[in-house]
Specification:
heterodimer, A: mainly alpha, 23 helices, about 80% helix, B: mainly beta, Immunoglobulin-like, five-stranded antiparallel beta sheet, five-stranded mixed beta sheet, 10 strands
Chain lengths: ~525, ~150
């Protein structure tokens, strides 16, 4: 059994870290040296960061701060491991191969966890281990502390992996449920949004006005320390880990840590392992369930209407995917309400008001353009079905416009909702709203066309055909980068003209309109040439 | 490049924007020449932000007595400055121990670095030249403490 688990683990690690082809020992040594240097660089960077926290921000850098940072990092680790293990365990591309080997399912499961643990350990060598050392240096700890750092880093890496393995099965159930009953996902999103609105209301309502951040800095530092102390109260096992590192009840703390790891392993063996095979094979067996409706009379729509209806239907069938794509865009009104609540609680001067407009434009464009990734994968997401589109006897321009119209509609609605929020709610003063809205509409509109054009010129049909939901699309990354660049540029353009004086808005809107016009011309020209050229 | 980076970037820009507007874009505070008249060390804040008030011993000194003093015991002092609209409400914290076994930060956070140190005196004084100050003795509780306090 152990040999089979070892072989399966090595196979997975071989695929991930591919040390196999290395015959040149010099190259191998160079690679290890480079990695060791990276760890030293991270330790140095963390030490410098802690020195700044201590000497400039005036926060303590003792055990309280260490526990706080370690706890936060491990919460993130658990979340990342849950997502990562869900993909590795249940949606892994290697699953069909591993399952076909002469090995039991629990051996495949154990090998997957082991491979993931080694990955997590390597990750922790670049983050948790340097953190241990940096805190050791700044607190002048003895030699025993540094020896313990190595042992504790190795033991610590078990916790997020085991917790992730347990939680992934729950998330998997929730995901299957949401696939079957889409309203659960919508309901959850609305509930989370409502809770966030209430939280923001609470934060803004409790602010003393006018805020003078510099004058309340001491209070801020005090509250930060108290918050860390409160938060550390929930740190559970991580409190024992830090206690052991700092030499408190070392034997007891190690026993508690080992007991926790064994306990978590037992929970995983009893709950996740028996369900593993069923869940891992569920994804492909129940990929599509179709209900047939009879007797429905079809209405005649124009060509554009037919294509737009098709896109709307695809969106409606995967409403959770749609929400996921537009999540950042939908968060815009809330984000603007929160930031503007702080801005307007500060009694801004004329310069301050101009700065607020620039930051509103920049932040809005960050979130709006991030939602345009749907247009950046509009063609690629067709995958193998794109050949059917090409056979349709219709103008390709109509197909393309039908694909991006939904993106335009969502953006316009969100921009309108954001400006209405800023204009109507308490705690915020509406200022130059229609000018801001028009600028956002033009720049974001241009970016939607740009994003679609990226996919038009380099469609990833093969990638989507093979991997479906798991496909990686380079056009999405390019659309995100171009969105960030546009947001920063428009923020700078706005600050330049607003500080310059009269007629600033006409110049800002003129530049936004120029960008939209340029993208429109390029879009139309590219559409004429490239759409026909796309081949499977 | 994925959307997580956009979220992080937006969060950083949002925080930086609030700080920048507060530094460069606020109407300045024109009220000047109001000196600090009184500094009061009210006590310390517990983890839940509740005020644990100082006690007064038989000599009239303010006392904060702690059940335990361990390495890394942290105490956040609560100090109020009167009047509220003093032009410069900043205060300076000083401690009577110079060996590093207990320290006080410029934000009033007292950190014990050694379990053997069982007492320290923290003095809080105004920095606007008004020469106003207050002080508190922080000490570990002993069995005789209970009868000594009047407040």
């Amino acid at each position: 059994m152990y040999n089979r688990i070892k072989t399966l683990t090595l196979m997975q690690l071989g695929g991930k870290y591919s040390f196999r082809g290395i015959t040149d020992k010099k190259k191998y040594a160079l690679r290890i040296m480079f990695r060791a240097l990276s760890v030293i660089a991270v330790i140095f960077a963390m030490y410098m960061l802690l020195s700044i926290i201590k000497g400039v921000i005036f926060l303590p850098t003792g055990r309280t701060t260490f526990l706080f940072l370690l706890f936060i990092s491990q919460i993130i680790s658990v979340l990342a491991c849950t997502g990562g293990l869900m993909t590795a365990l249940y949606y892994g591309k290697d699953n069909p191969i591993l399952m076909s080997f002469p090995a039991r399912h629990y051996e495949v499961f154990a090998s997957k966890l082991l491979a993931y643990y080694i990955g997590e350990l390597i990750k922790n060598l670049y983050f948790v281990f340097p953190m241990f050392l940096a805190f050791g240096f700044i607190n002048g700890m003895g030699a025993l502390y540094y020896v313990q750092s190595v042992i504790l880093t190795a033991l610590l890496s078990f916790i997020p992996v085991l917790l992730g393995a347990f939680l992934s099965i729950l998330v998997m159930f929730a995901r299957q449920l949401m696939k079957k009953t889409q309203w659960v996902g919508i309901l959850l999103t609305v509930a989370v949004y409502a809770l966030l609105v209430i939280a923001v209301e609470g934060i803004l309502g409790g602010l003393e006005r006018p805020i003078r951040l510099i004058e309340v800095y001491n209070n801020f530092v005090q509250q930060a320390v108290l918050f860390m102390q409160r938060f550390n109260g929930y740190a559970l096992i991580y409190g024992n880990i830090v206690g052991a590192a700092f030499g408190d009840n070392v034997a007891v703390n190690y026993l508690i840590l080992l007991g926790t790891i064994v306990g978590l392993a037992a929970v995983v063996i009893l709950t996740s392992m028996p369900l593993y095979f069923r869940m891992a094979s569920y994804g492909s067996e129940h990929a599509a369930v179709k209900k047939h409706k009879h007797g429905k009379e079809m209405k005649r729509r124009g060509i554009f209407g037919a294509f737009f209806r098709k896109e709307s239907l695809i969106g409606a069938r995967d409403i959770n995917g749609l929400i996921s794509d537009y999540l950042l865009t939908l968060a815009l009104p809330l984000m603007l309400y929160l930031t503007n609540g702080f801005y307007w609680a500060m009694a801004p001067s004329v310069t301050g008001r101009n700065m607020i407009i620039c930051f509103n434009i920049m932040l809005s464009l960050f979130l709006l353009t991030a939602g345009n990734t749907r247009s950046a994968s509009a063609i690629s997401s067709e995958g193998g079905e794109f050949s059917l589109m090409k056979t349709a006897p219709a103008d390709t321009a109509k197909m393309a416009w039908a694909k991006i119209l939904g993106n335009f509609i969502v953006s316009v609605v969100v921009i309108a909702a954001s400006m209405l929020t800023l204009g109507l709610v308490e705690n915020v003063t509406g200022y130059d709203l229609w000018q801001t809205a028009l600028t956002l509409l033009l720049v974001n509109g241009g970016h939607i066309l740009w994003s679609f054009q990226l996919d038009l010129r380099n469609p990833q049909l093969q990638e989507y055909n093979e991997k479906k939901d798991g496909a990686e699309n380079v056009n999405k990354s390019r659309a995100l980068i171009s969105g960030i660049v546009m947001a920063v540029l428009m923020g700078l353009v706005a600050v330049f003209f607003l500080m310059d004086g009269g007629g600033a808005w006409w110049r800002i809107i003129g530049i936004a309109a120029g960008f939209f016009a340029l993208r429109l011309v390029l879009f139309v020209n590219n559409l004429k040439v490239y759409f026909r050229e796309i081949e499977m | 490049m994925n959307k997580k980076i956009v979220i992080m970037l937006a969060a950083v820009v949002a925080v930086v924007s609030v700080i920048l507007v507060s530094i460069l874009g606020q109407i300045p505070n024109f009220e000047t020449n109001i000196l600090v008249k009184e500094i009061v060390i009210e006590g310390y804040l517990d983890e839940n932000n509740n005020l644990i008030p100082c006690k007064i011993n038989a000599n009239g000194d303010k006392i904060i007595s702690l059940d335990e003093i361990e390495p890394d015991t942290i105490l956040v002092l609560k100090v109020s400055v009167n009047p509220d609209n003093a032009n410069n409400p900043d205060v300076r914290y000083a401690i009577d121990v110079a060996d590093g076994s207990v320290m006080v930060s410029s934000q009033g956070i007292v950190t014990f670095n050694s379990a053997t140190r069982t007492s320290a005196i923290v003095t809080v004084s105004a920095v606007d030249g008004s020469l106003v100050s207050d002080r508190v003795i922080i000490t570990k509780k002993t069995g005789m403490d209970s009868g000594d306090f009047v407040g």
